[in-house]
Design a protein that fits this description.
This protein is an alpha/beta fold and 311 residues long. The chain has 13 helices and 7 strands. Helix 3 links the parallel strand 2 (55-58) and strand 3. Helix 7 packs across helix 8 (166-176), helix 7 crosses helix 10 (204-214) and helix 11 packs parallel to helix 12. The protein binds S-adenosylmethionine (SAM).
Length: 311
């Protein structure tokens, strides 16, 4: 079922001006939006690539792709939308036969409607504690929280939630099992880690860590970026917006590696790796949202944009 949508509830595209400045969409150019969401970036790209520029859009969320389909209906014939994880990007590109590709955008993380939705499982009040982008996937957050052993659960909360209270939270969770829903989990965390004047809910980081684990977000990103070089062609721009420091590190390492001519340790005087650079960085320093954008859209505050072009 598609959640009812009015234009006010669409996700606000992050760093839109910056994305367009880098991608420079022009008449008849083709693009890939690997994380379509509500299609905010896609819409702006399609408006700039009239009359025949095409866009391939992917989203792992089966409800999300239907929302985007509704919103982008007016571009029928110019859009090809697929409910695919971006780890199948090469297959999607080949099936769509959209070539050449001027740019690929990854705007990682989660859409506002997913976060606010009563049944996706991402909100503190949700009944399901599901958190799967793709409802065909097997494991939910509820299963993880009720079955992981102490060591695995605390390292998941520490690594993906970057929460210094991971051990304390894990002890409280294990003592209170079975956890029945998100509200229950939130209460347990709030009792274990009092707010003490903090603005954010103490459960925020645990929820984030569960979402990242349920959807294999880091593994998918690492795999997809490393496989890009097998099928992108000269001139294609790659833009990635990350919202988590681990995610951003994966992007940074990928771009550093592929923009280097040699990967040998500095102690080796004559190159033995024969690696050649395949991309040029577009922005040497990471791009962050302006104060003005953060004021209008606080959810964008952790966004970090990196971009490169295939040479
Ligand atoms: C921040 S939102 C994108 C918002 C979009 N740029 C817009 O303007 O509306 C991220 C989207 O990526 C999707 N997503 C996250 N990981 C994905 C993956 N591995 N494959 C495909 N889609 C993914 C989520 O379901 C979500 O809809």
């Amino acid at each position: 079922m598609v959640a009812s949508i009015d234009s006010l509830s669409y996700h606000k595209p992050a760093l839109l001006k910056e994305v367009l400045t880098i991608l420079e969409p022009r008449s008849n150019n083709n693009f890939v939006d690997a994380t379509l969401g509500d299609g905010g970036h896609a819409l702006a790209i399609l408006d700039s690539t009239l009359p025949n520029g095409r866009l391939l859009g992917l989203d792992a969320d089966d409800q999300g792709i239907l929302r985007a389909f509704e919103r982008l209906k007016k571009y029928e014939g110019r859009v090809c939308l697929k409910n695919y994880n971006f780890n199948k990007l090469e297959q999607a590109v080949s099936e769509s036969q959209i070539t050449p590709i001027s740019g690929i955008l990854f705007d990682l993380g989660i859409s506002s409607w997913q976060l606010d939705s009563a049944d996706k499982g991402f909100s503190f009040k949700d009944q399901s504690l599901d958190m799967r982008f793709d409802s065909k996937q097997f494991t939910t957050a509820l299963q993880l929280i009720n079955t992981l052993e102490y060591k695995d659960l605390s390292s998941l909360i520490y690594k993906y939630g970057e929460d210094p209270n991971a051990n304390r939270i894990t002890r409280a969770i294990i003592k209170s099992r079975p956890i029945v829903n998100a509200e229950h989990l939130t209460e347990i965390i709030q009792k274990a880690v009092p707010r003490r004047g903090r603005k954010t809910n103490p459960a925020t980081r645990t929820f984030q860590s569960l979402r990242i684990a349920v959807n294999n977000e880091m593994e998918n990103l690492e795999y997809t970026l490393s496989s890009l070089m097998d099928f992108v062609t000269k001139g294609t721009k790659i833009v990635v917006i990350a919202y988590h420091s681990l995610e951003d590190r994966i992007v940074k390492n990928f771009m550093r590696k592929e923009s280097s001519d040699c990967l040998c340790p500095t102690s080796i005087l004559v190159c033995q790796c024969n690696h050649t650079k395949k991309i040029e960085l577009i922005n040497k320093k990471v791009i962050k949202p302006s104060a003005e954008e953060m004021l209008g859209n606080p959810r964008v505050r952790s966004a970090r944009l990196r971009a490169c072009v295939v040479i």
